[in-house]
Amino acid sequence: MSFAAPTPSASVDLAPKSFSAKALRDFALIQRILDHHDEKAYAELMAHYQKSVYQLVIKMVRQSDVAEDLALEVFVRAFRSLHTFRPEFAFSTWLFRVATNLCIGHLQRQRLPTVSLSATRFEGEETSFDLPDPTPTPQEALIQLQRIEQMHLAVGKLPAKYQQLMQLHYFEELSYEEIAERQHLPLGTVKGQLHRGRDLLHQLLAPAQRSL
């Protein structure tokens, strides 16, 4: 699949000083896209985030068919606007902002406060009742966005040995056993490092959570 290329002269200075190896990998791919319109770099960048973007979208819209379309649209919009990206934060943070803004727009267009259902007729009269719509309001979605961004920023500040495990557990939602198998680590090591990582993450997130 090809996407609209960014402005040819849109090369940006991607020389961050304190980012994770994953973020540096993304910056290198982005530079290849901006400088050479490298289709392989497009595909690789999309492959890295396709699953996590879909998981974010499905949690917000709660409809699989809609989520698939929106997740694809996220990448279309992101790649068309890639020349506007600035490496003040990791690419993943910027991409998830694109995804959440798209979801909020969708929810604002589609949201109904209640869903009316007609119950069985009783003695010639039709009774109706309302069920609350389970999809989040735009305000709820915005709060969810803020929490997701805080989570990503906080995980990015963790020591390297905790970062990947936390990303696999919280963002890709892998079990302890799946993480141990993927990382070739003993199960006890995975549990211990995730426990320590959670403690550090709570310390980093506590001030931000009090502000919400």
From TrEMBL:
GO BP annotations, alphabetical order: DNA-templated transcription initiation
* Domain RNA polymerase sigma factor 70 region 4 type: start-end pairs: 149-199
The protein depicted here goes by the name: Sigma-70 family RNA polymerase sigma factor
Which residues are in the RNA polymerase sigma-70 region domain? 45-111
An annotated Gene Ontology molecular function: DNA binding
Sequence similarity: Belongs to the sigma-70 factor family. ECF subfamily.
This protein's UniProt keywords: Sigma factor, Transcription, Transcription regulation
Q: Which InterPro entries match?
A: RNA_pol_sigma-70-like (IPR039425), RNA_pol_sigma-70_dom (IPR014284), RNA_pol_sigma70_r2 (IPR007627), RNA_pol_sigma70_r4_t2 (IPR013249), RNA_pol_sigma_r2 (IPR013325), RNA_pol_sigma_r3/r4-like (IPR013324), WH-like_DNA-bd_sf (IPR036388)
Q: Which NCBIfam families match?
A: sigma70-ECF
